[in-house]
Write a structure and sequence with these properties.
Length: 260
């Protein structure tokens, strides 16, 4: 009897699910709302074809949701489950001061990007989600750490909650690229959130690339990457939507380490 395998990434604002084929490749992935058992069941029903035993590997930066999801999966007969709750649980070369207090998603994205790049390093990995992370690898592929910045959606909510009159806006919610200034409050917010985020990422990539030879490869991931990546890195930007799930597959199931 074959064993179906799931990979799951529990983030701060969404859940991402993937199914592995017999070769360990992700053949189906979906992103859903974070904490809804009805949606969880629908996702499992879509990904798993029949009443087969199912193993899972899960990355989490959200302990409360992860705990509820773990209990629900076990009640649903899914297991064994391998968890990645911090970078300390991911096997890769690094120079972190406190991997046990560093997000597993950061480590897993670095692990997958390292193998996808086709060369050890130097490299930079950019995640664009609730938070934006920019990770630095040296010429030997050693993860040196990175930077964590606020994502545009979270920045918008912070401005709305921390001020008396500013409304919430969705700077990346449309296909339209906002101008760099606005003649009223909402377009001014859109300009600041979008172009401020672009500028922050561009500066972090530039500074993290200092002293690295040859020029670092750059791999992007995350829900906002398709809109931010081309503006920062140009038309040739490399975006891997399932980068964290690929890292989960590698770390959890020894999935193939692909090279271009």
């Amino acid at each position: 009897m074959s064993l179906d395998r799931l990979v799951i990434d529990v983030g701060n604002t969404r859940l991402k699910w993937g199914r592995l084929d017999s070769n360990g490749r992700i053949v189906d992935s979906i992103a859903t709302v974070l904490d809804d058992q009805g949606v969880w069941k629908t996702s499992i029903d879509r990904l798993i074809a029949g009443p087969l035993p199912v193993a899972a590997a899960i990355s989490s930066v959200n302990p409360p949701v992860a705990d509820r999801l773990g209990c629900w999966l076990e009640r649903s007969g899914i297991g064994p489950i391998r968890w990645f709750r911090s970078a300390a649980e991911v096997s890769l070369n690094h120079r972190l001061d406190a991997p046990e207090r560093t997000g597993a998603d950061r480590a897993l994205s670095v692990l997958a990007a390292y193998h996808l790049a086709g060369q050890p390093g130097p490299g930079i990995v950019v995640q664009c989600g609730t938070a934006i992370t920019v990770e630095r690898l040296d010429a030997d592929g050693c993860w040196l750490g990175g930077a964590i910045a606020i994502g545009p959606a979270l920045a918008s909510r912070a401005l709305q909650s921390g001020t008396a009159q500013l409304p919430g806006v969705s700077a990346l919610g449309s296909d339209r690229e906002p101008p760099a200034w606005g003649a009223s409050t909402i377009p001014a917010l859109e300009a600041g959130l979008f172009w401020g985020t672009v500028g922050a990422i561009r500066e972090l990539i530039s500074r993290q690339g200092e002293g690295l030879e040859p020029r670092p490869w750059v791999i992007w991931t995350g829900g906002d990457a398709p809109k931010l990546g081309p503006r920062v890195s140009g038309a040739g930007v490399r975006i891997e939507p399932d980068l964290v799930l690929m890292g989960v597959a590698m770390a959890g199931f020894g999935a193939p380490r692909p090279f271009p």
